[in-house]
Amino acid sequence: MAFVPEFQTSPGMRDILPPESARWRRFVQVFAHVSEGAGYGQVISPLLEDLGVFQRIGDATDVVTKEMYDFVDKGGRHIALRPELTASICRAFVQHRPITPWKIWYTGSQFRYEKPQRGRYRQFDQVGIEVLGADDPYLDVEVIALGWEFFVALGLQKVTLLLNSLGEPPDRAAYVLALKCYFEANLDTLSDESKVTLQKNPLRVLDSKRAQDAAVVAAAPTIAEFYSPGAAEHFAAVQSGLTELGIPFTLDTKLVRGLDYYRHTTFEFTGGTLESAQNALGGGGRYDGLVESLGGPATAGVGFALGLDRTLIACDDEGVFGAHPADVAVFVVDTTGGLQALQITTALRALGIAADRAFENRSMKSQMKAADRSGATYAVIIGSNELEAGTAVVRPLRAERALNPDGSPSDGTQSTISRTDLLDYLQKAIS
Ligand code: HAM
Fold it and tell me: Quick one: which atom of ligand 1 is closest to the CA of 282?
């Protein structure tokens, strides 16, 4: 019978092991590079906030009403694990009052009590950017373009950009009312789930993926009919900016997003490979009233977040940005007790050369196996003969990568080197 451990990760939570964990780190490094190259600085905020911070996301959203991990702490504060970072960033803005425009990027884990499946977890990671304090439509374009540039940097080619505008708050309010009337007039054809959604938030009915709702959703009024002149102008400028940059987009008048704070531009990046319910790799938009709702001054805001977990699944499906084991350059095999390996690995690491070794004075065969598994380009071998003679054997393990100290390709034969020359020899061969 297979071994079942007493404790395992709880549903929707995962251990990220090597080499996958190194891929996560590289993912964040690429995102940092793209963001910092455009003047964005990183904000690291707490995992926990007062529940009220997240309630501002919208009390009709699933994220707030159903999925929050909230509890009362020992001091009697009602707090929650963050389900997203936009509200936290706005809270930080109100608290610290930085100079605007405040351009920031972030990364970290989010928590939502959802039904777990491939691409949907209860703890998942995001990277994202937010800009507070500027309502220029070309800023929306910059933000979207940085998301696009990031996907390109990962090597993804099947990402689609969906674009919509929810207009000014009065446009949106008029639209919500029109939708409510429309769906109520078609109540008989709506699925039971959508009837419930309609009571809470008519906009979210547009998100229904149920076949029964497809026809009635397709014929619903569109937001474009309700744009004020200012909203229409803003949206037109965003589209012309994206066209100018050659970023392809698909207008999707049904794109309303799952959080309530959006107005004007909304967008989503979808992948070409995941199930449609999970194919949103990221999304964002404008949220000009959110800072105010958190007690700050009227402040424009725009940003997006990308799901790291989902984007990596899309990378796997497209065969790009793979996980690579963190190979060391040198593996020291020491059958004389291990002290020589201690000296040599320490000296190599001090020179910036990644080095590993075996422990417990294993046999030559077992240590050579470990050397092979480590992915090292060279094994340094010390047996009793070498110890006595003050030498070491350098054996190329990856002939295709190994070089001689003069830079010429190694033919794979091993060399016996004096211990005094060993570090110099390896440094030259590796550099
Ligand atoms: P969101 O659409 O809720 O937006 O989440 C953004 C991305 O996070 C999703 O597209 C998805 O890739 C990932 N994600 C969400 N839930 C899960 C989950 N349960 N498992 C795995 N991945 C998930 C926001 O969070 C907004 N704060 C985005 C934003 C920033 N808007 C303006 N600024």
Answer: 10
CA of 298 to the centre of ligand 1 (A): 25
Residue whose CA is closest, atom 10 of ligand 1? 282
241 within ligand 1 shell (Cβ under 6 A)? no
Mean pLDDT of the chain: 95
pLDDT for residue 282: 97
**Any ligand 1 atom below 6 A from CB of 262:** no
Ligand 1 atom having least distance to the Cα of 128: 30
pLDDT value for 216: 95
Nearest CA-CA partner of 403 in 376, 375, 428, 370: 428
Name the DSSP class of 117: B
Alpha helices in 186-307 (DSSP H): 192-200, 202-205, 211-218, 229-245, 290-293
Residue the block writes with tokens 């190259």: 37
172 Cβ below 6 A of ligand 1: no
CA distance 83 to 64: 8
H/E stretch holding 36 reads helix 20-36
Residue whose CB lies within 8 A of the most ligand 1 atoms, among 123, 259, 261, for a mutation test? 259
Instruction: Provide the 3-class DSSP secondary structure of residue 393.
Output: strand
pLDDT tens-digit readout, 322-336: 998 888 999 999 999
Question: Is any atom of ligand 1 closer than 6 Å to the C-beta of 120?
Answer: yes
- At 1 the pLDDT is 76
CA of 308 to the centre of ligand 1 (A): 9
The H or E element that residue 123 is part of is: strand 123-132
Report the distance separating Cα 43 and Cα 87, nearest Å.
Answer: 13
Strand 378-382 with 391-396, pairing: antiparallel
H or E segment to which residue 270 belongs: strand 263-270
Q: What is the pLDDT of residue 269?
A: 98
On whether the CB atoms of residues 25 and 326 are closer than 8 A, the answer is no
Res 90: pLDDT = 98
Residue whose CA is at the smallest distance from ligand 1 atom 18? 120
Residue 287 sits at φ, ψ, to 5 deg, of -145, 60
